[in-house]
Amino acid sequence: MECFTAVAQKLQISRAAMSKHTSHLKRHVGGHLLRRTSRRLSLTENGAVFYD
C-alpha cells in the first residue's frame, strides 16, 4: 500500500483530512484498520475484512 500522503493526494484531500477519516472509520469498525510504518501502510485483519 502507499503512504498516507500519496493516498490523500489521489483522493484530493489533505493529509489531515485523510487521518480524520481513518480515525472515524477506526471508531466505527471498533479496531485498527491500518498498520502504519514510516515507509508504508498495510491492512490489519480488521482492515482487510472491512475492505472486502
Largest β sheet strand count, sense and barrel closure: 2 strands, antiparallel
CATH architecture: Orthogonal Bundle
Number of helices: 3
Strand order of the largest sheet: 1-2
Q: What's the CATH class label?
A: Mainly Alpha
Through-space gap between termini: 15 Å
Strand tally is 2
Q: Radius of gyration, Cα only, in angstroms? A: 11 Å
Which class best fits the helix and strand makeup?
Answer: mainly alpha
Q: How much β-strand is present in the residues? A: 5-15%
Q: Can you identify the CATH superfamily?
A: Winged helix-like DNA-binding domain superfamily/Winged helix DNA-binding domain
Stated plainly, the CATH topology is called Arc Repressor Mutant, subunit A
Describe the structure.
- This protein has 52 residues and is mainly α.
- It has a single domain, classed as Winged helix-like DNA-binding domain superfamily/Winged helix DNA-binding domain (Arc Repressor Mutant, subunit A, Orthogonal Bundle), CATH 1.10.10.
- The protein contains 3 helices and 2 strands, in the order ααββα.
- A two-stranded antiparallel sheet has the order 1-2.
- α1 crosses α2.
- It is globular and about 25 Å long.
- The two termini are 15 Å apart.
- The model has no long low-confidence stretch (mean pLDDT 85).
Please give the structural blueprint:
Elements: H1 4-11, H2 15-29, E1 34-36, E2 41-43, H3 45-51
Antiparallel strand pairs: 1-2
Helix pairs in contact: 1-2
In short:
The chain has 52 residues and is mainly α.
